[in-house]
Design brief:
111 residues, 3 helices
Amino acid sequence: MGKMSDPCHLHDLPSGFSQPADNLIHQAITTPGVPLVPLANLSAVRSRMDSLRRFLSDSVNANTILAKDLMDMVSAEIVSAIHQAIVNGAALLTSSASTFRIPNLPSSQNP
């Protein structure tokens, strides 16, 4: 097995944020009331998924067969990313709901 089958390769994440995430974080910092933690968490999830995508793409391109334990780790990373996207997305929605209140509409009365 080559470097593609090394489970540690999955966690070789790039340091810092990518340029679009940096821009988003900068905008959030300058916007009052925007929660930075969920944004940073979502950016980290995106970085992990980018790393995982590259790992899987390299594995496919090299015709590398992944061992079951490595496939289990890949699955766990995907499940974790989905969970983190839901949790942090909900945190952002909750924050935006308190910032952008929708006015109560008058209820229609039936004659």
